[in-house]
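One such given next:
>
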Amino acid sequence: MNPLANRVQQSQPYALGLFRLVIGLLFACHGAASLFGVLGGAAGGGGTVPAGTWPGWYAAVIQLVGGALVALGLGTRTAALLASGSMAYAYFKVHQPEGLFPLQNGGESAALFCWAFLLLVFTGPGALALDRLFGAREERVSERPEARAAERTEERREPVGA
């Protein structure tokens, strides 16, 4: 492998962690705007979404909580799956009836968030995630190559008869 490719490969977990952090913060900002009227408020109008209204209020809660969890890297895969699903719902129920393509129907951010979160479901949180701090010790041990090799050796041993 050439030196540049090697360097990029070593940096991949950190790039993924930065991606997770930015996507999570941007998503949480949408939820905060809708729930608390900050950052321009709901739909940029300065207001808030009335509590309990379907689907806006629930979407805003998913955005705030899911975005915060993804940004922190805590329960990343589950939070990202829920966030991705909520954005797929938003795209197909709200935006897609207005036009076929995201550029026509204003659903670009919903489509991008949906695919970005789906990517995190499959890649995991990357580096610097709280999942790594609170994860089970068993998982971390079995991720190491020498632990996997020891497990394979253990599986191949024949039971000793009495």
User: Anything to note?
Assistant: The CA atoms of residues 55 and 162 lie 66 Å apart. Helices lie at 3-36, 56-72, 76-95, 102-105, 108-123, 130-134, 137-143, 145-156. Residues 3-36 form the longest helix (34 residues). Residues 136-142 have pLDDT under 50 and may be disordered.
